[in-house]
Design a protein that fits this description.
alpha/beta, three-stranded mixed beta sheet
């Protein structure tokens, strides 16, 4: 059985930041999040080093699911340097928003993304970037983003990136 004795399920999670690939341990149970210690994420430079760490803890990984893959935080950081409506990647930014939300909660922080206008921006991202089986959109559909939505998206993703950077503890130094 994968997971641990509590029923929590674990998945590898890959991200790119500052041109480097990092690996985190994502968990799913009543609350989803990322493995951390003392409000610092345990980050690894390879899947092999993550697996070695898990072996010492007796944790088995679940099979990767449809959400597995690389979350490209460099793409987010590049967009944040010049946020424009034309360069919004709904699928990539939706993944980043969800990642940042789970990451922030994992270390006791918040994206402060619960106001009505920001939730509406998230809903638009989900509508255009969520799973095709759910949204039913053609690939040529694209939204017209308002300046206010671009600003809200930049604020949330910028805050998320800052929170994540603060929570990193360095690759292969998990305890």
């Amino acid at each position: 059985m994968a997971g641990d004795s509590s029923g929590r399920k674990y998945y590898p999670f890959a991200y790119r930041l500052d041109g480097k690939i990092g690996w985190l341990l994502y968990y799913s149970d009543h609350h989803d999040g990322f493995d951390q210690t003392e409000s610092r994420f345990r980050s690894f430079s390879s899947l092999v080093s993550l697996m070695a760490h898990l072996a010492t803890r007796g944790i088995l990984l679940e099979e990767p699911n449809e959400e597995s893959g690389l979350t490209d935080l460099d793409e987010v950081a590049l967009w944040l340097s010049r946020p424009t409506a034309a360069n919004i990647d709904p699928g990539g930014f939706l993944n980043a928003w969800n990642f940042f939300n789970d990451a922030a909660k994992s270390i006791g922080e918040s994206l402060h993304d619960q106001d009505e206008e920001t939730e509406a921006t998230y809903d638009r991202l989900f509508h255009y970037g969520g799973p095709a089986w759910h949204t039913g959109l053609r690939t040529d559909d694209s939204p017209d983003w308002s300046p206010e939505e671009v600003q809200r998206l930049a604020i949330v993703l910028g805050q998320g990136l800052k929170i994540f950077r603060r929570g990193l503890n360095g690759r292969d130094r998990a305890s």
